[in-house]
Specification:
The chain is α/β, with parallel strands linked by helices and 215 residues long. It contains five helices and 24 strands.
Length: 215
């Protein structure tokens, strides 16, 4: 059986990690797509970096490829996935061969799960999410769209996270906590209470960044 060709949208460092995961998942890595003019015409691992316009103008060469999202910024990743969907291009789910996914977990298109990550029973992962290296999503958690869980994040059971929220390296959310949309949780923070939309929290226990600055 021939491996499905895949293009990684994003030719930076995160894109390389996504490409590695795609290879591990059994895709045939065909190249990278990037909007930055400075990257067009370059190569990574001997594979071409092309622009989105090049990709669209050469359907005979790239038309059979699906896409993986190699962009770390949540808003930019959302923009790219919407662009691809508007062009009727498939945005793949990519799960590294050394990740562990429960058969009852649900992963929406565009989600990437890196090496060593665990997604446990009945967890729901929305469109375009990143479950980064070694992150743990416990049972019955629900992630909105374009969430980024950084390496070694740990979510207890039934945690809810809103769209475009980012949890930094090693952050922890206790069971049942709700973290709103467009929120940020600092590296190493421990979230023990709900976090409102668009708020940045840091520390142990996690507290609004503005509140810490005033003390």
């Amino acid at each position: 059986m021939t491996a499905r060709p895949i293009l990684v949208f994003g030719a930076g460092g995160h894109g390389k990690v996504v490409a590695d995961a795609a290879r591990s998942a059994g895709f045939a890595l065909a190249g990278f797509v990037d909007d930055a003019p400075s990257r067009a015409g370059s190569s990574i691992w001997g594979l071409p970096v092309i622009t989105w316009e090049q990709c669209r103008s050469e359907p005979g060469r790239w038309g059979s490829a699906c896409f993986a999202l190699g962009i770390g910024d949540n808003g930019a990743r959302e923009n790219v996935q919407c662009r691809l969907e508007d062009a009727d291009r498939e945005v793949a789910v990519v799960v590294h061969g050394r990740a562990t996914i429960s058969p009852t977990a649900r992963l929406a298109p565009g989600t990437v799960v890196m090496a060593g990550a665990v997604v446990n029973p009945d967890a729901v992962i929305g469109r375009g999410c990143i479950v980064n290296t070694g992150a743990i999503v416990e049972h019955d958690c629900e992630l909105g769209e374009f969430v980024h869980l950084s390496p070694n994040v740990a979510l207890g059971g039934t945690v809810w996270i809103g769209d475009r929220t980012h949890l930094g390296l090693g952050a922890v959310a206790l069971p049942g906590v709700r973290i709103g949309t467009d929120a940020k949780v600092g590296a190493g923070a421990v979230v023990i209470r709900d976090v409102p939309d668009a708020l940045t929290v840091v520390g142990v226990p996690a507290w609004p960044l503005e509140g810490r600055a005033k003390k």
